[in-house]
Amino acid sequence: MTAPGGVLPDDVVDAAMVRALRLAVTAQEWGDTPIGAVVLGPDGAVLAEAANEREKRGDPTAHAEVLALRAAAAVHGDGWRLTGATLVVTLEPCTMCAGASVLARVARVVYGADDPKAGAAGSLWDVVRDRRLNHRPQVTGGVRAEESATLLRAFFRRRRAL
């Protein structure tokens, strides 16, 4: 199912982003910022998925990406390396999540909306492509960006009205 060069077809990535957006919506049920993440294997199969659970777990590291990467590592690779995997997330990863992607050796990071306040895949920092690191995933931003941004704006608009 992978295209030449190991890149998954656009329709597979788009379907994963739709799934991540659905997960993001559910995060609001427990008061979390609506961010969802899906990890795809090299063949395009879903290895793991998660929504933000910082509020739910009382854990500052319970970002959707970290939870999804942890779950994917339990079912793929050698226990922690996610070689050939693609991380699909609704919002540009922060420094922690970008670093986790690099350390997990994912092949590609795909995200929806840019995060000019905390993004670490090109907006504010570029952790994932830092030449000083030993692994640099391919990055694709802007997939269903408006849908993700609209969801986030509505969430924060409601939160500020409280």
What would the keywords be for this entry?
162 residues; alpha/beta
Q: Approximately what portion of the residues adopt beta-strand conformation?
A: 15-25%
Q: How many helices does DSSP assign?
A: 5
CA-CA gap between termini? 46 Å
Helix content: 25-40%
| Number of E strands | 5
Main pleated sheet: 5 strands, mixed
Taking all Cα atoms into account, the compactness measure Rg is: 15 Å
Describe the structure.
With 162 residues, the protein is α/β, with parallel strands linked by helices. The chain contains five helices and five strands. A five-stranded mixed beta sheet has the order 2-1-3-4-5. Strand 1 (36-40) and strand 2 form a beta hairpin. The radius of gyration is 15 Å and the shape is globular. The active site is at residue 65.
Question: What's the topology here?
Answer:
Layout: H1 10-27, E1 36-40, E2 46-51, H2 54-57, H3 64-75, E3 86-91, H4 95-103, E4 108-113, E5 138-140, H5 145-161
Parallel strand pairs: 3-4, 4-5
Antiparallel strand pairs: 1-2, 1-3
Short description:
With 162 residues, the protein is of the alpha/beta class.
